[in-house]
Write a structure and sequence with these properties.
Number of strands: 4
Shape: extended
Structural class: alpha+beta
Strand order of the largest sheet: 1-2
Strand content: 15-25%
Largest sheet: 2 strands, antiparallel
Distance between the termini: 55 Å
Number of helices: 2
Radius of gyration: 22 Å
Helix content: 10-25%
Length: 84
């Protein structure tokens, strides 16, 4: 099947026909992973949400006392003069 790369704002995209999506079990709105292998773009359906388990990990880090920001808060000298 031949298609074309189309411009979408500052990006580009390819329209994937519904029958082709169905062949690998995807549909509009599904999460996918894109990668390049041997000069080819590979599209793979993701079965789990990308952030699955993040809430549990955040709770575990807090319980272990390891939830401090990696970059502590910092301010600029002029911040006190700002009007919001």
């Amino acid at each position: 099947m031949i298609s074309a790369v189309k411009k979408f704002g500052h990006s580009a995209g390819v329209i994937i026909p519904k029958p082709l999506l169905a062949e690998f079990g995807a549909q509009a709105g599904d999460n996918i992973e894109l990668r390049v292998e041997a000069g080819k773009i590979v599209i793979e359906r993701i079965d789990t949400p990308p952030r699955k388990g993040w809430a549990d990990d955040a709770r575990r880090l807090a319980a272990e006392g390891d939830d401090e920001p990696a970059w502590p808060d910092f301010a600029n000298d002029e911040d006190a003069k700002l009007t919001w």
